[in-house]
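Dear colleague,

As promised, here are the two records you asked about, laid out in our usual form so they can be pasted straight into your sheet.

NAME FIELD: protein one
SEQUENCE, THEN STRUCTURE:
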Amino acid sequence: MHTGPRPRVPGPHEAGPEDERLPPARFAFDAWTWKEVLYLLSNLLTSLLGFVYVAVWLFAGVLLSVTVVGLPLLAAGLMGVRFVGRMERGRARALLGVRVDEPSPLPRGGSRRGPVGWVWRTLKDTVAWRTTLYTLIRLPWGVLTFGVTLAALFVAWPVLGHLARAMASADRAMARGLLSPSDELERRVAELEQDRGIVVDTAAADLRRIERDLHDGAQARLVALAMGLGLAKEKVLEDPEAAAKMVDEAHGEVKLALQELRDLARGIHPAVLTDRGLDAALSSVAGRCTVPVA
């Protein structure tokens, strides 16, 4: 009879090497052994449902891949497989005490947006594909564990604890190997792809901003300068003094245009904004505006 202190049974939400902290398999059943038996008996139903789901969407998606609905169907099926993986991780956590971290959600954004981008990112989801593999190999394993466990309950119950521990350990290994998050390299690649999309979007926004500033600032001033010089050319013979005054104004406009181009080259950040603040910067812009500002 076992008289020593009862080994500590880890809670279902504790992390770490669960198998090393499990109580040893014994002929006398305890709560942990019954949890493992329940998990093994439920393998048949869960693996059958998962296999049917994966087989249906995978067959339909591959069959229709030559049409416009094939790839979106595959992507939608992979999103459903992620849900299957979440359920399996929860079942393993509750009945086997194995803690498998939830994978990161599918990255959003990137260089490809819209439905096409979503389909592309989903089809490259390694977490969903590994869960698909897990679901496919679970059916024969579920049939085996269900049959062995059920037979041991009736004809070999003295060794059921050892059998349950051995098969449950294999289940723990499969859950950790195929349902765990991607490795660090895969996560880093996904992060870099997302960052690349952000950089591309930011660069495009900067280009649009520079184009707008050129159009509304230096370009408008140069157009006004060309018109002023044209008028001065027409008046140079009729009214030399007025023409000289217009040329002088055009010279000032050239200086202002050059200053605006310098500000643009410095990153659309006028020095007066840094040195004297927003009020002085707005006053400077209003003073250089070709349209009178009250």
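NAME FIELD: protein two
SEQUENCE, THEN STRUCTURE:
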Amino acid sequence: MLKSTDFADLLDPRFRRIFDEEYAQVPDRVGDFYNVMSASLQTERLSSVGTTGAIPQLSGALTYDDVFQGYDVAITPLEFASGIQIEKKLFDDGLFNVIDQKPRALAGSLFRLRQSHAVRPFTNAFSVDSFFYSHSESVAMCSNSHTTTSNASTASGFDNLVTTALTATSLAAARTQMVQFRGDRAEIIGIMPDTLLVPVDLYETAFEIVGSQGKPTDATNAANVHFGQYKVEEWIYLADTNDWFLMDSRAMKNGRGLIWMDRDKGSFAFVEDFETFNGKWRVYSRWGNAFVDWRFVLGAQVS
């Protein structure tokens, strides 16, 4: 609990100003990467159905195709809550409007937690993450071991993992690999990468690759095939300084890529203790997220 005896500076008029959490709030990125939905159940279950096969030439009798059940995803929104207690004397006598802003700071803490959870699919892209969800494929989002329920060959078009550092050459190779992703029947599905996601440390590299009209490393200034082709997304919550991701933003947010489930986006409450007069504030929220289908992304796990 915050008490007046612990914050003498806040009661001393000689301090003209006390800096407390004075920094710009980073933008909310949840809507940039997720299809955001409202959850109504303790566990929300999503399922997929495979594509139809190639249509054969009609040779008298009509051919009937089969469609295969895809993988299932179960998202369980988890609870997050915190509170703060403030002594009435400190709240009444504290100067500089610092203490009376502390309950509002709970909202900032909740916001930052939300951002750190939004980046989870990428920070855990190369391992099986079960914090919010279970996925019946049981394979990491970015993997060279993806499977299918249709018994089609996965020898080609089912690998969305590379290990190369970000360069113009590796980006070109990643694009080639990504546009050849296959569907559950090993059919070409038309993935078109348009977004390059990088940590802060790779922003300059990404900007040079995408923003230069000529090849950045070519003295002849030959045309740069990447110029203007990708939107560079820098995310400060990406912890690894070398990993990067190439994405199809349409596939990412079409309901089969990344899903964010809000059960309670954030509720705040206040009560004054009858015996001590101390104020109590609390915040509560409940959310979850998951990837449904991996084909929106190619991830580079760089050592």
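A couple of things worth noting about protein two: The CA atoms of residues 12 and 95 lie 8 Å apart. The chain is about 20% helix and 25% strand.

Best,
R.
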